[in-house]
Amino acid sequence: MLRHPVHECDRIFVERLRAFVISGLSDPGFNVPRLALNVCMSSRQLQRRCRELTGQGPLEFIRSIRLEEAEAMVRRGAFRTVAEVAAAVGMSPTYLARLYSAWQGHPPSEDLRA
User: Fold this and answer.
1) What's the total number of domains in the chain?
2) How far is Cα 96 from Cα 109, in angstroms, rounded to an integer?
3) pTM of the model
4) 89 located within any domain
C-alpha cells in the first residue's frame, strides 16, 4: 500500500489513516472530510499526502480498505449475505457487488457460497 522508499513517520501516518478508516468502516457517511478531520488536515492536504504516500487519493484509499475488509469478511464466512457484508463495510449491496466484481473478477456471492 505504501510507495517505496518511505520513512518511519510516513509508515506510521498511513497506518493511522488505515486505523481511522477501519474505525469508521460500518458508517456509510465516513468520507474524506471526516478522515481529514481525524488526522487534523484539510481535505486538500490529505489528498496530496495520501497520493504521495500510497499512490491513491483518499477516496480510493477508503474504498480499497472497505473492499479489502469485505473480502476478508466474505472469505472467513463472517456473514451469510452480500447485504450483511455491505452493511458491515458501509456500502450499499449493489455498489459493493459492482466494485468487488471489478476487483476480484467475480461477485462476492460466489465467495459466500464457497
Assistant:
1) 1
2) 11
3) 0.89
4) yes
